[in-house]
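Supplementary Methods, section 5.1.

A reviewer requested that the exact input to the structure prediction be made available. We therefore reproduce it here, unchanged from the version used in the analyses.
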Amino acid sequence: MKHPDLPLEGGCRCGRVRLRVSAPPLATFACHCTGCQRMSSSAYSLSAMVPAAGFEILSGEPVRGGLREGAIHHFSCPDCMSWLFTRWEGMDGLVNIRPTMLDDTAWFAPFIETYTSEKLPFAETGAPRSYPKFPGEDEFPGLLKAYAEAVADG
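The structure derived from this sequence is encoded token-by-token as follows.
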């Protein structure tokens, strides 16, 4: 695993929404939950958790998509509907970006996979850490440290 060269820029499929990431990811994920399968039209969704201070919208205005209730807010392009990023209520300092929306994806590999209890039988990610649901809140500091060490070891 390696950190990407920063800043990273990217955008939706049609190009109307462009974004920039100027802080290194704190962790990378693949989520196998059925909600992510449906939102991504794939076997799992991919995410890179970045500090909110290192994330900005350069152009366009994403709209809230996915489920429109609850504490999780998914944002998409209003035209092509590409799922760009997610924010959570109460976790204002973090943003989960969809790394496949970035122009450079060569650096990305999932470190943690979640909701393996719902994964499709053929879906493999290569993530070194796996959880049947989400890791416990008490496990996150150790996971973030392990990710930082894995990236440092390159």
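Helices lie at 34-40, 140-153. These observations are discussed further in the main text.
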